[in-house]
């Protein structure tokens, strides 16, 4: 059983942002609508996920209703594809659910359109957020108000084929490793495998969280706080792309053919097909477990190895639970949020299916029942969370992505791919990237 972290499942997030953007005008008009849910007396709750997540939600909600007999819940669930298209249609038609699972990448758009309700008046009363860190709650906070309760800890970590390393006589790197350490072990993988394998997939553009962490280590966010501009400099992106030019040259990562094929297609990820041993794509170990048969382990994103490098990792909130603003049952929805956050049975039912549990209390509850790989996963996430909390130089948690973020993420990938194929130099691609990104954010 694995976990999903919505912010970094880029192909899913991008489709969700596109859905939210496409119905922008309609959502603005309907955000303060006259009703939510259905004509029945049941509270409607919607979510997306795997069959394991569906079953866990249903089991937990059955327990909730046994403890709160006056609240009856109508459950609606599906996969991620099309989820927000259906949500938008329901909002526009006046039949929005009362309570919904919300993507951290979309919460700002729905909050600013008046679709979901601020929860601040309930905090410390019917909404019990004991044990939630300020950094974690930032994932559901928009313009200073709380619009979503995080389900778990989302962190930047790499997935490692540990058994593959061991077969080559290599050890798992230390958690306090650097970008130089990543290159060193990646080159060793290629040498010891006789050139048959590469150490890591190409993170130059295919993994947003990799560059985002790198930029934050230089004190630069991906987007400015108002979401109207890029927060990093051309020098930072140039240094990043040149690092990956060197990685490709030294056979530390694969060429553009493998990188291109794996884009938005987990079945062709380098770790999955046996071409690489380390990946930035957390989807390789997502809800439902690993899609490889290898023994996997996890590492934080590498540290900057230059003077003055800052803590670049951060904690975000997995998925959120949000109440719709038009609902007449927000108080009941808040009770359900508290139930999932604090009830021992609910925490045990959900395990890691909505992310690494958000509090130390919750993590201690689920730990005894986890598989070894889930324990390693949670241990590394907990390690990163504590390291970020102790860091005095870390930037604030990133703001929710602005409109157009999906286009810029894809632009980052395509630009790196163009460099990898030799179509453009790094410097030539830099100018084009910043020009296009500026136009996207200005729309």
Automatic annotation (TrEMBL):
Q: Which residues form the signal peptide?
A: none
Q: Which InterPro entries match?
A: Bact_solute-bd_prot1, SBP, TAT_signal
Q: What Pfam families does the annotation carry? A: SBP_bac_8
Source domain of life is: Bacteria
Q: Indicate what this protein is called per its UniProt record.
A: Carbohydrate ABC transporter substrate-binding protein
């Amino acid at each position: 059983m694995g976990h999903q972290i919505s912010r970094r499942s880029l192909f899913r997030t991008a489709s969700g942002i596109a859905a939210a953007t496409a119905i922008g005008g309609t959502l603005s008009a309907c955000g303060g609508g006259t009703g939510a849910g259905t004509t029945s007396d049941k509270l409607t709750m919607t979510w997306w996920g795997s069959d394991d997540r569906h079953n866990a939600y249903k089991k937990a909600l059955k327990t909730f209703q046994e403890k709160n007999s006056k609240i009856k819940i109508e459950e609606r669930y599906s996969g991620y594809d099309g989820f927000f298209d259906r949500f938008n249609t329901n909002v526009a038609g006046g039949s929005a659910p009362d309570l919904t699972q919300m993507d951290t990448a979309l919460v700002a758009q729905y909050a600013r359109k008046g679709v979901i309700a601020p929860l601040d008046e309930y905090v410390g009363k019917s909404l019990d957020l004991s044990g939630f860190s300020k950094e974690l709650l930032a994932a559901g906070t928009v313009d200073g108000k709380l619009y979503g309760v995080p389900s778990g800890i989302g962190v930047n970590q790499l997935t490692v084929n540990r058994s593959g390393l061991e077969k080559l006589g290599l050890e798992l790197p230390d958690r306090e490793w650097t970008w130089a350490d990543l290159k060193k072990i990646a080159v060793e993988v290629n040498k010891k495998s006789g050139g048959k394998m590469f150490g890591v997939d190409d993170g130059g553009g295919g993994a947003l969280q990799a560059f985002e962490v790198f930029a934050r280590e230089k004190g630069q966010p991906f987007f400015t706080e108002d979401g109207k501009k890029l927060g990093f400099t051309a020098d930072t992106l140039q240094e990043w792309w040149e690092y990956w030019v060197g990685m490709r040259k030294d056979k530390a990562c694969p060429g553009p053919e493998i990188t291109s094929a794996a884009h938005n297609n987990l079945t062709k990820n380098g770790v999955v097909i046996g071409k690489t041993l380390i990946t930035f794509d957390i989807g390789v170990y997502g809800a439902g477990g690993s899609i490889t048969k290898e023994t996997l382990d996890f590492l934080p994103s590498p540290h900057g190895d230059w003077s003055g490098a800052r803590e670049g990792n951060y904690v975000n909130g997995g998925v959120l639970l949000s109440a719709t603003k038009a609902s007449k049952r927000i108080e009941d929805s808040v009770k359900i949020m508290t139930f999932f956050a604090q009830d021992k049975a609910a925490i045990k039912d959900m395990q890691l299916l909505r992310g690494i549990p958000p509090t130390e209390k919750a993590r201690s509850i689920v730990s005894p029942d986890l598989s070894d790989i889930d324990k390693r996963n949670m241990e590394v996430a907990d390690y990163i969370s504590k390291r970020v909390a102790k860091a005095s130089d870390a930037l604030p948690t990133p703001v929710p992505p602005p409109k157009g973020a999906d286009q810029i993420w894809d632009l980052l990938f395509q630009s790196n791919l163009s460099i990898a194929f030799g179509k453009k130099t790094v410097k030539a691609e830099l100018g084009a990237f910043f020009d296009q990104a500026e136009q996207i954010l200005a729309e």
